[in-house]
Amino acid sequence: VGPNNKKLTLLCGSPHYSCPEIFAQQEYYGSHADIWSLGVLVYTMLAGQFPFQANSMEALGKKVLRGKWDRPLAASAAATALIQTMLVVQAPKRARLSDICSHAWVLDGARSAD
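Structure tokens predicted for Protein kinase domain-containing protein:
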């Protein structure tokens, strides 16, 4: 949550990356929405497809609001665990940026890049 703790109401962004709060047309914190979108991005990079897919916006919204997704086959247990912390329907329970930066999957990648 940002320093001013101001909730947002603007419904924006690409639908596949939109958090449950946006589909529910609720106010939301930008940082929580960003963590969800990052979770979608990591999932998509590992799986080659979005975690939530549907033929209509209504169906996509229902899937996002349920928050159920399949583990990407190419993902390690650590990567899956990280995604699980980000794709949490209840926004306050989502990982924070500091949690993500200190996660084993991120740190292992940083170490192997050295």
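The chain has six helices and no strands.
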